[in-house]
Amino acid sequence: MILEFENCDLRYDVQSVCLLFFPREPFSEEQGKRLKVSLFSDCAEALFLWNGRSFREQEPFDPQEFDSVRTVVKRAVYQVLRQATGKDSAWGIVTGIRPANLYEKLFSRFGADARRIFEERYFVSPEKTDLCVSVLQGRKKAVSLLEKESSSLYISVPFCPSRCRYCSFVSASTEREGNILPAYIDLLCAEIEEKTRRAEREMMPVVTVYVGGGTPTVLDETLLEKLLRKIQACVLRRFSVHEYTFEAGRPDTLTEAKLALLARYGVTRLSVNPQTLNNRVLETIGRKHTAEDFFRAYTLAETYPFVLNTDLIAGLQDDTFASFQRTVDGLTALSPGNITMHTLYLKRAADIGAAEIGRKIAEGTQASRMVEYAEKTLPEKGYFPYYLYRQKNTLENLENVGYAREGEECRYNIYMMDDLQQVYGAGAGAVTKILLPGGVRRECNTKFAYNYVKDRS
């Protein structure tokens, strides 16, 4: 698609809207679709040329003057592409990561009129507006418990027993890079010491700890205990930690001995994630475990006093709506404290590959039906949504939502996702987020584990 601009320079925002209608569309000088966006004193205009036809839309600036130039331009582009394609998006022109935060800002300014503005001016569906309202209500308690001068510690163990085909995270397979794990854990422990001393020095006591990856429980018992002992010495004995989460996402990495170690060293929350309970789909996406393996791991984990989380993904290859229903129903029957519903997002870094990505989008998916089923069923089973985020290239422009039973929501997820708290990051790919009056400063560690070992050795 060729983009042209007159009196405005909002290329990223315009591209984000275009991708809602033409996923993975290249933006180049090649002949094909042509979109011209013009900005005037009283309106924005979008002219779209496609298949020998022209489509034009103008969007005026709202007399209430709550519109930004960005919002008006996105509205014009959205309207002209909707006219040309006959498609729509439940999130309208809201393309950012945190839609609930946008709704909260509108509500703080316009009160009860925020809903009308969200739906009429941002083209958000009533169902997604309801979701934002529910998320803001669901996170209230955790936000009220947030200590102003406090922080979280994120610890990255970016290794998995094998790579899932849909995954685009920077994580290493132990099949290929397991030999660097001992050196990585030694260096990670040293950085945990550095970051906790920094938190002390900056008078930002750590109140939540999150160990993620990858799959941190891929560590053998010796390395796992070394890491847990360091966290205990540097964090649990130094600060009053209210929440300690450990990702055990792959059930094939969990053993009785590892669970006992996690409990002994103070872990309070544990993720055991099947993504789907359909064995054929698990094989397709490259997860080397079965649904039965998940149930065995979950049964072991629930004998310990962890708050348990399980993840599922809507839109996986070869999954059907009926199969997804069975996964939702199977997970709710276990009654974990948390269920996190993700929608598949497709990136070129994933092993699935660009050709398969294009085919999947062209064929269409049942992701919307799947998400609707989860968002209807989970509240009926006693779960409320408490955090919400969105990613680019997500199937059907959908969302990821964390659900919890009363009192079992993950505070770290809320504080980190909404930039409510300072976060110190340790390990490859970890990000330290420093809250400043004008926003957030990010200090990013090197992405790859082998570079982390090389750079810090």
Structure description:
With 457 residues, this protein is an alpha/beta fold. The chain folds into three domains: 85 residues, Double Stranded RNA Binding Domain (2-Layer Sandwich); 49 residues; 311 residues, pyruvate-formate lyase- activating enzyme, CATH 3.80.30. Helices cover 40% and strands 21% of the residues. Strands 13-14-12-11-10-9-8-5-15 form a nine-stranded mixed beta sheet, sandwiched between helices. Helix 8 runs parallel beside helix 9. The chain is globular.
Summarize the structure.
The protein has 457 residues and is an alpha/beta fold.
Helix-strand layout with pairing:
Blueprint: E1 2-6, H1 11-21, E2 34-39, E3 43-50, E4 53-60, H2 69-85, H3 99-110, H4 114-120, H5 126-138, H6 140-144, E5 151-157, E6 159-160, E7 172-173, H7 174-177, H8 181-201, E8 206-213, H9 221-236, E9 243-247, H10 256-264, E10 269-271, H11 279-284, H12 291-301, E11 307-314, H13 321-334, E12 338-343, H14 354-363, H15 367-380, E13 384-389, E14 400-404, H16 411-417, E15 422-426, E16 431-436, E17 439-444, H17 449-456
Parallel strand pairs: 1-2, 5-8, 5-15, 6-7, 8-9, 9-10, 10-11, 11-12
Antiparallel strand pairs: 2-3, 3-4, 12-14, 13-14, 16-17
